[in-house]
Write the structure tokens for this entry.
Amino acid sequence: MSDDLTIILTAGLLGTACGLLGPFLVLRRQVLLSDAVAHAVLPGIVLVYILFGSRASLPVILGAGLFAVICVIGIEQIRATGLVKADAATGLVFPTLFALGVIGVTTFASGVHLDLDSTIYGDIAFTPFRTWELFGTEMARSLPLLAAVTVGNMAMLVLLWKELKASTFDPVFSKVNGISPELVSRILLIAVAVTAVTAFESVGAILVVTMLIVPAATAHLLTVRLLPLVAVSVIVGWISAVGGYGSAVALDASIAGAMGLVATICFSLAFLLSPRYGIITRAVRHQRKISPVLSPGLQPVSRAGDASGSEDVSG
């Protein structure tokens, strides 16, 4: 497999895995969670080194994953008390864990290079060089890891679709019908944490945060139905992967940066041209509605008829 195809498939699988979860974070107003996880994993990396003296990728990912789960459960537990809102809970938990990690580095590993740039921030350009041998075939380890995460996220959505939908749009209704919104929320947040930590080393935290938030926010401007929202989010993720890589090669620029920029361009186009919510679309629709009022010699009956027709189109 060529290096170009490896990078594109890695980014596309990331876009799929994140696109399956991102819409729920956007709808639940928990988009900062991915950024919180990126900082909260530091004590897990330090703990693995203290306990095992290892900086190998797999133990580090497991340690980071443990603290990512601690982060999301802590946020959910604090939010569930009702004393603080979700954003405040996020702002309480992840700085605490990050500070704990910084203290651990300075106290126990001040003279050790933990390769945090590689572990947390990563670089998708290096994915073809980090390989495993599976069934006699050498391949980039990012592909089976992200493929497994994608399958896991898809299985969770299939099994918990009704529960996720009900608890996202109406937690009270879901509780009345025997669905625990707290349990569903924790499962979702743990899935986000596992997805983020698995992808950190391969593609970098910035691209993970981008793929979790921007495609989902773009899709939210284009559709109001949940299933199409998830599908559009995944599609935008793939457009960002392919378009970003092509742009990076053409401009000799950062691959992750180019992918993030393409994702942002998709959002900007939706922000301006969305059929329902786009700024330009709404301005044009508003102008068409008021133009008969400004036209000279227009009869009242014509104005009423035109207004009625305009309402039908917008609806």
Summary: The CA atoms of residues 293 and 303 lie 7 Å apart.
